[in-house]
Each structure stands twice: as C-alpha cells, then as structure tokens.
Amino acid sequence: MVESAALGSPGEPAAPVVDWQAELVRHAPWLRTIIAARLGEPAAIDDVLQEVALAAVKQAAPLADAAKVSPWLYRLAVRQCLLHRRKRGRQRKLVDRFAER
Questions:
Q1: Model confidence pLDDT, tens digit, residues 88-97
Q2: Per-residue pLDDT tens digits for 34-54
Q3: Could you tell me if 21 and 11 are in contact, meaning their C-beta atoms sit under 8 angstroms apart?
Q4: CA gap 100, 93 in Å, rounded
Q5: Which of 13, 19, 74, 85 could pair with 1 in a Cys bridge, judged by C-beta atoms 3.0 to 4.6 Å apart?
Q6: Which residue pairs from 84-88 have beta carbons closer than 8 angstroms and sit at least 24 positions apart in sequence?
Q7: What gap in Å lies between CA 14 and CA 66, rounded to an integer?
Q8: pTM, 2 dp
Q9: Which residues contact 74 (CB under 8 A, 6 or more apart)?
C-alpha cells in the first residue's frame, strides 16, 4: 500500500510513502518461500524473516515507484539469507574448534 506525503514545497509533487507494515504482511508468504529455498533450515525461516522486516524498516526510504517494493524486499531477503549462512558458518567453526580440544 502506497500513500502520498507532501514535501516541503507546495510546487513539488508528493513523494510516495510506503506502509511497510502492510507491505511486509502482504509479502510475508512469498518472502518465507524465498528464505526457505535459500536456507533449507526450517528453524531459521522466522528468524531471517524478522531480520528482513527489521532491515526494511531501518532502511526504509521513500520509493519513487511502488512497483519497486517487491524487488527491493526480495533483495533484502536474499541478503539476509547470505548473512545468516555466513553467521552460522562462523558459529560452527568456533564450536568445532573448541570441540577438538
């Protein structure tokens, strides 16, 4: 859902404002599928989806085109999957290192 918000000058066109909560709820099933396909860890899906939502809210900026919300969320989901896998790899190496001692 995209609304318009007035900018500082009355002569400028209104910048679109994205209702991130509504967009995240609308895209959640699709994002969950993307995350599940990338991770293969059912236990981590909700954690990564929450990280995607957090990143979307933190990085939220007025988008010039409402059609760009889906590709942007897709990119955030893929990025969060990569970060999750990287973090898990580091944790496993650390656990393995201490298990050898």
A1: 876 666 666 6
A2: 999 999 888 899 999 999 999
A3: no
A4: 11
A5: 19
A6: 84/39, 84/44, 84/47, 84/48, 84/51, 85/39, 88/44
A7: 13
A8: 0.70
A9: 31, 34
Note whether 55 and 35 are within 8 A (CB).
Answer: no
CB within 8 Å of 95: residues ≥ 6 apart: none
In angstroms, the CA 28 to CA 76 distance is 13
Separation of first and last alpha carbons in the chain: 55
Token reading at 68: 């760009």
The pair of structure tokens assigned to 9 is 């000058």
What are the tokens at 2? Answer: 């995209």
CA 37-33-1 angle, 5° bins: 145
- Enumerate domains of the chain plus CATH numbers: 16-58+66-99 (1.10.1740)
